[in-house]
Amino acid sequence: LVASGVGLLTIVLALILWFRERRNWLRWLGVAALALVISQGIIGGLRVVLVDHALAIVHACLAQAFFALTVSLVVFTSREWRDSQAEVPIAGAGRLTRLCASTTALIYVQSIFGALLRHTGEWLEAHLLFAALVALHVLFVIIRVMRLASDQRKLIQPAAGLGLLLVAQLFLGAASYLGKFMAMFRFPAEAVLALTTTHLVMGALMLVMSLVLTLRAFRLSGSFRARTTPNVLTEQYSL
After folding, report:
1. Sequence-ordered list of residues with C-beta below 8 angstroms from that of 43, at least 6 positions apart, any chain
2. How far apart, in whole angstroms, are the C-alpha atoms of residue 184 and residue 186?
3. pLDDT tens track for 69-85
4. Which strand (E) or helix (H) includes residue 35?
5. What is the pLDDT of residues 139-160, one digit of tens each?
6. Phi, psi (deg, nearest 5) at residue 201
7. Out of 40, 88, 157, 162, which residue is the most buried by the measure of CB atoms under 10 Å away?
8. What values do phi and psi take at 21, rounded to 5?
9. 3-class DSSP state for residue 181?
10. Nearest residue to 208 via CA among 83, 68, 86
């Protein structure tokens, strides 16, 4: 029922973007979101019928991608994104954007290894390795944001949220590992399920928090201003 509700909302979203949004690339992002949610529905149905772990892994990975895409649509349709001239670019925003983008990519790869571990019991070493890489990158992101944009609340807030999510995620990951793989710390099945599910949710929140930070850093970079200024001037001239 929840999946059906998400699917219906995505259909409405795609239709609204297609008929009311002027930016062509954003209209096609709405179509991409609809394609993803349809794929999720098909794979989810096959997963229930066939009870296939490979389908479960693909289903989990597509879910993270769909969530990230919908959050991106929220950012792109917000007033702050549409008003491209509202803020002055900050020095070093380009490097911050690249760092945040790499962090987002690492978190997504980490979620893939998490799905593999959850459904097969394998790839634990890769999961732990990428957990360490994600932790280091999040630390670097926080330091970079504090140095470059300590007065930018739109960067400080998601950076701080990302750091808090990382702490919670490390705690939940350690507890899930002990409860699932260490015999001396065997937890009840309900507790392991709750820890694993919360760990998954925190990972998804980290992914979109890092993505929002990436998009906002890009918006404050010179590259964004260079791409949007000609369009704004063209619109003003035509008016």
Report:
1. 55, 58, 59, 62
2. 6
3. 999 999 999 988 877 55
4. helix 24-50
5. 999 999 998 877 888 899 999 9
6. -65, -45
7. 162
8. -90, 130
9. helix
10. 68
Q: Is 83 helix (H, G, I), strand (E, B) or coil?
A: coil
Buried b (16+ CB within 10 A) or exposed e, 85-115: eeeeebebbbebbebbbbbbebbbbbbbbbb
Q: How confident is the model at residue 206 (pLDDT cuts 50, 70, 90)?
A: very high
List the one residue out of 155, 144, 148 whose CA is nearest residue 213.
Answer: 155
Token pair of 226 as six digits: 């260079």
**What residue type is 98 in one-letter code?**
R
Q: Which residue has the tokens 């992914």?
A: 207
Angle at 166 between CA 181 and CA 132, to 5 degrees: 60
Bigger pLDDT: 208 vs 176:
208
d(CA 110, CA 188): 26
Q: Where are the beta strands (DSSP E) in the chain?
A: none
Alpha carbon distance 69, 205 (integer Å): 13
